[in-house]
Amino acid sequence: MCRFLLYKSNSPILLADLLTRPAHSIIMQSFNCKLRIDRRRPMNGDGFGIGWYDEPRTNGCIFTSTLPAWSNINLQRLAEKIKSALVFAHVRATTGDTATSESNCHPWQFGNLMWMHNGNIGGFDRIKRRLQNSLREEVYLSLQGTTDSEHAFALFLNMLDDPEHRDEFSHAELRQAMLRTIAQLNQWLDEAGVEETSLMNFAVTDGQSVVCTRYITSAEYEGASLFYSSGSEFRSDPETGQYRMVKANKREDVVVVASEPLTYERSDWMAMPTNTLLVITPKLNVHLYPIRDKYWTNEKRHA
Amino acid sequence: MCRFLLYKSNSPILLADLLTRPAHSIIMQSFNCKLRIDRRRPMNGDGFGIGWYDEPRTNGCIFTSTLPAWSNINLQRLAEKIKSALVFAHVRATTGDTATSESNCHPWQFGNLMWMHNGNIGGFDRIKRRLQNSLREEVYLSLQGTTDSEHAFALFLNMLDDPEHRDEFSHAELRQAMLRTIAQLNQWLDEAGVEETSLMNFAVTDGQSVVCTRYITSAEYEGASLFYSSGSEFRSDPETGQYRMVKANKREDVVVVASEPLTYERSDWMAMPTNTLLVITPKLNVHLYPIRDKYWTNEKRHA
Amino acid sequence: MCRFLLYKSNSPILLADLLTRPAHSIIMQSFNCKLRIDRRRPMNGDGFGIGWYDEPRTNGCIFTSTLPAWSNINLQRLAEKIKSALVFAHVRATTGDTATSESNCHPWQFGNLMWMHNGNIGGFDRIKRRLQNSLREEVYLSLQGTTDSEHAFALFLNMLDDPEHRDEFSHAELRQAMLRTIAQLNQWLDEAGVEETSLMNFAVTDGQSVVCTRYITSAEYEGASLFYSSGSEFRSDPETGQYRMVKANKREDVVVVASEPLTYERSDWMAMPTNTLLVITPKLNVHLYPIRDKYWTNEKRHA
Amino acid sequence: MCRFLLYKSNSPILLADLLTRPAHSIIMQSFNCKLRIDRRRPMNGDGFGIGWYDEPRTNGCIFTSTLPAWSNINLQRLAEKIKSALVFAHVRATTGDTATSESNCHPWQFGNLMWMHNGNIGGFDRIKRRLQNSLREEVYLSLQGTTDSEHAFALFLNMLDDPEHRDEFSHAELRQAMLRTIAQLNQWLDEAGVEETSLMNFAVTDGQSVVCTRYITSAEYEGASLFYSSGSEFRSDPETGQYRMVKANKREDVVVVASEPLTYERSDWMAMPTNTLLVITPKLNVHLYPIRDKYWTNEKRHA
């Protein structure tokens, strides 16, 4: 199990203020993950990746490493220099026996789209070939690694029209492609008779809109945790040094979505309901959409 | 372009005597490769791998790294300790834009089989999907990376009967599977209209027999270089310190095949003819077989 | 804070049976360290090292990596092949801001001596120059990194007569050098007015004898944990698959010392008393010696 | 032997236009170094580092790696995003048996000063202790690795007044400290009776001024090569795609100093005379100063 974080704002934030300085940053989460479902491997030390955009309609940049995030001195240094208004970050714990490899580090890029995943697709091996065969050639050949997460991205790309050459997508289009991706995965998993549960917390952006999900192939259990928060600024308190989401006015200038709250003010963080899709529009409006398929329920789920 | 070396003998050699101490070892070849066809990237600094067997009918062991071989201190230390009578070694230069990754380092293993490749399959992208679709499930799912070399191994495995659970193969069986692999690749490349030339210097072993090829999809040009030598011992001269193939008697106790001669005694090294398959039997007999397909010629080839 | 393990026996053990297969191996300890004093960084993911000897009176071999032990596929593979009757293993968590570096990975070697350390020398910076200036030239120049641990080894070497060219030391000699090393460190720390506490769990071997300490520069607190166990064999139970120390007869054929018990049978593990030195002789006798200096006490210490 | 490059201009350049895209960039130099003195290890594949400043009077940022520069995908990606008007870049070949380590990668930083070195200090081991003992405590303790290059930087820092807390230095002050550093090294090397030749191509900057040297401890031989070029812009020709130094007017807006010319227009590159110091002022004026010590000569030197 892994962890991710995404940040979108009106004005750039120094990556250090998001990734390395906060006491409960995603880097620290790689030490001490209290909310994890999978207890077998209690930390995320198998590499990490960050992605960010510096200007609209340009491709993002990605920095990945198979070294643990917390001891990566290049990450520490770059985070003190790079500013961005749209950031993806991911820390990784390998779940199998594969070598830790940079080609298996999130996030992935294709054109100006960026993708990351927290969770896993149960029984993925049984639908892998079918998934690959469904892909258009340019998407199929873009695969660099072997993970379920990257293959889910490929399937998502396949739902879009010419993702290689476009620099912009409407958020409605991204949302539809995300829903179709999940639906398609579910159909194949069903047809293959897979009974393992899948956790599909996906996040995608084109540098302007963001779409992400908290999703589980179950009507009984909660999905992997996902929280969001918004406000006017994410910064440290000058007195305590603690980071928090400042809500200086009614405008929302910052939205953060993360596997775990980044600050100790739990009231600032809302849990995304399980099997929900969240959209952040280019203008920073946040919309939540229930994903009403056979795993939808109004009943209380088990944690 | 890469480089490889394989060694088989009656008694174990210290890896250092093969890999790190000789002045013209495969590690030094990674500095100074005079015989290379592809001049664009004049060294092999993108990782390496070694594989070796310690006892018959056991799986081999593999050590790979994305650091250059010449500065890998773990390799230096292990080579001073490990002895083996059957060794594969490979140094790698990436040919594309992909990240250097341990899952793309030769050699690969499957059961007790080990495989490496020097060269490249031209236009591989155009047959990749077809190749994958031809694979049995357990072979398909064993793919860890994205290289043509590993996919060629998968195709080879697909030619064998139950490679996952057997610990021994006859050399005739390995030879037939190798020839069928090359023939199948050629057929698909033809059908896909690929015109780029492929260099298929492959090597495979089950820990007892070795089969390797020097092969090019051309009747005009020489393949990537491949040399072999045999004798009673490969060791350094006590006076000069130079390594050489000692021929103390008529018995052949050691066979070495390498992309370039490992010693300065060129007369000790025979060039394998282009489009030939070489077999080393468990008893260290060496057989050469011409590969008589449409790329076979008796004419002189261009270098 | 780090963790270490040392193993000495009459017959070689497969490294996998010691390092990677046991459920509570040192690799697993790098996930879940319940007995650690320093809670700030709850795992040991900043690299590891193993050292082993294959024959008496030869130098040992070392394999180190800055990747976490649990995801290092080379470690997994090598551990399935290498056997040794004398093994050191260390997992590391950096305590400062320094880059994780292979030259800062334990164990270190000098001639046929091997050294590792669990703990830290408080205020080391204030005695570093003095320590370096006390070293003989060949020891001073052998320093590869910047850690207190490696410098403590250098000081230890300086207490020995010609460690560079000898292949054997009596255990009494190693023990005396260890005690003099600790005494010298203490004297310098005192003279520099250092008040921070030091944890000096050191281990050293020449391939035949082993000397290790559980030591703290305090008469009030317990040192970093250290346990030992002995028996006739360390192996997995054929029924449960659990590893344990088998005590088939009264002979002691195996001695293990480790920062935490390797098995769930706590009764098999004795805690080394704080400020004690343990010797394992070449014939596998175990002796404990109290270190009677100003930090010695018969009172109960605080955990 | 290594290679370095430094770039200073009035307006920021995209790092890719300097480091990764030019056909004869420092990255390509790591493949094919025709002008090297030391032929034993014909490439620079043992790591690299880049350093850059984004605003005056701030600390620079450093990105280093022990992977070869040419296969480092993070470098490729970052270079497409980061712009700077003051860049240091270094590719490295280890000269000894030490592990390749990030703490031994150039450039180094101290406060807002940055340093790199091409060459080596012959017989450094014989003056290392004396050099360390001459250092003020904060400089001594800042040493992270073991190289002669980093120690030369420490000595340079020791010549400055409070380098830790200042954000600006006059170029005269940097120049004097550089000359004193070289003179001090020479004095110690002489007193130690060292006869090996030293190559001291040093470069230092505070983010505004740059001082670098081409220097050898010999009156007979040329030092390691160093070239410089200036003009109004360093960019690719829109027609040929070749990079070159454009000289659109008489103003000098760009100065580049590099171990080898970065372009094929040799007339654009001036060789720095051996035993010369070059200063680039904050306003981009370039001054050359002969280093008139006992190794100065008006005679022709041997290459």
From TrEMBL, chains A, B, C, D:
Key word Hydrolase present: yes
Limits of the Glutamine amidotransferase type-2 domain: 2-303
GO biological process: glutathione catabolic process
Pfam families associated with the record: GATase_4
Any GO CC annotation of this UniProt entry: cytoplasm
Keywords: Glutamine amidotransferase, Hydrolase
GO MF annotation list: omega peptidase activity
Keyword rRNA-binding: no
SUPFAM superfamilies to which the protein is assigned, alphabetical: N-terminal nucleophile aminohydrolases (Ntn hydrolases)
Name listed for the protein in its UniProt record: N-terminal nucleophile aminohydrolase
